[in-house]
Specification:
Largest sheet: 8 strands, mixed
CATH superfamily of the largest domain: LarA, N-terminal domain
Order of helices and strands: HHEHEHEHEEEEEEHHHHEEHHHE
Structural class: alpha/beta
Oligomer: single chain
Strand content: 15-25%
Number of helices: 12
Shape: globular
Distance between the termini: 89 Å
Length: 354
């Protein structure tokens, strides 16, 4: 072998060695950076907490009905004793094209009509979504029947506005749909279900990711590090707990913006619950029974109550696994820590037979 060939071969092996070292170093950093512990589920229903001798400082009221119907929805809303005034926004997910599990417009029509509500959404930021573009988002919403029951406002069609985040560990500001400033009150109407990234999609996700602009969604998914859609790179390099904590912080910023939460109410429907979100075009099959409807003025309590009802259900194994595998319960821990609401709650059934 000539000296020239030996030098070439030597350089080749040195290059391979450097590449292997860089890859190994990156993987070591990545594994450490991305590690997180799984929080186990425990109930925060105060009746159960008292039986177990567990203490709590404050508890919020969450109403419950098994009646998943337009009448049941109206009844539980009226139980809150709140009459939104002014220009009322109804925040919900219109669902990705092809997803059949989103809220049924026929179920919510009477409620939306009763407050003369405008359905609000923001464009998506994940790859492959038909709702990343305003025109296509409107088309999907029309196909799903939402534009038949109310006006639809894609709030970041003309950009975003910045609202402050107080007490956060990751975010100092939240980029939300610009048109949020046009509304006097927000009714948060959530379809509770699983989620491939967050573990579950509840009220907290609905007002954090759901009200964030496309750029704002990227910031939440990356703990404030990235801002340019799609979310893929930022999400891939962000620790799971940082992501869920950032969602909690973004949710609190919206609540703070709405008069400290006094101009918001929350209703969650627990039906058609797949392990996948309504943002998935081809979700996993629904494999558990419908549970009911919850209502509260506390987004943390209503999500905790939904979690507890799911974990109590005998056919919820797959959804439980999805929630725990993504450490989805951590958003509740952080949301309570930063003062957004209470995990402890009193569950009040409005059904006469209970």
């Amino acid at each position: 072998m000539t000296d020239k060939k030996k030098k070439i071969l030597k350089r080749f092996f040195i290059t391979i060695g450097v590449i292997v070292f860089i890859v190994a170093a990156f993987m070591t950093w990545y594994n450490i950076h991305m590690a997180y512990d799984i929080e186990e589920h425990i109930t925060y229903n105060i009746d159960e907490m008292e039986k177990e001798g567990r203490s709590f400082e404050n508890a919020s009221i969450v109403y419950f009905t098994k009646d998943i119907s337009p009448e049941g929805l109206m009844n539980i809303y009226e139980e809150l004793g709140i009459t939104p005034e002014g220009n009322v926004a109804v925040k919900l997910s219109t669902g990705e094209a092809g997803n059949p599990n989103h809220l049924d417009p026929d179920l919510i029509k009477d409620l939306v009509d009763s407050v003369n509500g405008t359905i609000i959404e923001c464009n998506t930021a994940y790859s492959g979504s038909k709702r990343a573009d305003t025109a296509m988002h409107r088309q999907v919403a029309k196909e799903h029947g939402f534009t038949d029951i109310a006006e639809l406002d894609i709030m970041d069609e003309d950009g975003y506005m910045v609202i402050p985040v107080s007490g956060g560990d990751h975010l100092e500001e939240n980029w939300v749909g610009k048109n949020l400033e046009n509304y006097d009150y927000i009714m948060v109407l959530t379809h509770f279900k699983g989620h491939p990234m967050a573990g579950f999609g509840g009220a907290l996700k609905n007002i954090s990711i759901g009200i964030a602009s496309r750029e704002g969604k990227v910031r939440i998914h990356s703990g404030g590090t990235f801002k340019k859609p799609p979310i893929d790179v930022g999400a891939m390099l962000t620790n799971q707990d940082v992501f869920t904590e950032s969602m909690a912080e973004a949710a609190k910023s919206v609540s703070d913006y709405e008069d400290g939460g006094n101009k918001m109410l929350y209703i969650s429907v627990l039906n058609n619950m797949s392990v996948d979100c309504d943002c998935v075009s081809e979700p996993a099959d629904v494999d558990m029974h419908d549970i009911g409807i919850l209502a509260s003025t506390d987004p943390v309590a209503i999500d905790q109550a939904a979690i507890d009802l799911v974990f109590k259900a005998p056919d919820s194994e797959s959804l439980q696994e999805r929630i725990l595998s993504k450490n989805g319960l951590h958003i509740l821990t952080h949301a309570e820590k930063i003062g957004l609401g209470n995990r402890a709650y009193e569950l009040r059934s409005i059904d006469g037979d209970e």
